[in-house]
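Review form for a predicted model. The reviewer records the input and the model, then writes brief findings.
Reviewer: anonymous (R2)
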Amino acid sequence: MVKPTLVTNTIRSRREEAGMTQAELAGLIGVTRQTLIAIEQGRYSPTLEIAFQIARAFGLPLEDLFQYPEPTQKRED
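Model under review:
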């Protein structure tokens, strides 16, 4: 069983706003459509290189597309 990633993203909504298909974006960044689907659904974290390519495809900084939760502090009782 694959552990889901904690990284979330807004790729799908950004892609749809841009009027781009999954196949178009996948071709633009050099991955398969299946890989892009997995990234959009949070089942796969892209490499840093792919993340930068996706961000550049939209002309946005990484943090506008990808989010990572702030660490939670453990309470010591």
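Findings: Strands lie at 8-9, 66-67.
Further findings: Residues 8-67 form a domain with the 434 Repressor (Amino-terminal Domain) fold (CATH 1.10.260.40).
Recommendation: see findings above.
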